Amino acid sequence: MSDWYGEPLDDGFVARRQANLSDYQMRNGCLGEVQARDEGELWLLCDAQTRLSERIALAESTRRRP
């Protein structure tokens, strides 16, 4: 979870991205914050969102090609 900052929440945990997402990433499903009930679930959500943002960034880069 190196790209995320996690902390306890009332009934679980919340993690927020340390880096900003592009508008393209946000329009295509990437989240800046995730919430979970336990640390294992939080780790999985952060990992899934990190992978998604990487794939969306790749799509964004191919979109810019002439």
Write a compact overview of the structure shown:
The protein is of the alpha+beta class and 66 residues long.
Describe the structure.
It is built from two helices and three strands; from the N terminus they run ββαβα. The longest helix is centred in the C-terminal third of the chain and has 25 residues. It has one domain. Helix content is 45%, strand content 24%. The mean pLDDT is 94. By secondary structure, it is of the alpha+beta class.
Average of per-residue pLDDT values: 94
**Strand coverage percent:** 15-25%
**Secondary-structure element series:** EEHEH
Could you say which structural class the secondary elements and strand pairing correspond to? alpha+beta
Task: Give me some keywords for this one.
elongated; alpha+beta; 2 helices; 3 strands; 66 residues
Architecture blueprint of SSEs:
Elements: E1 4-9, E2 12-17, H1 23-27, E3 33-36, H2 39-63
Antiparallel strand pairs: 1-2, 2-3
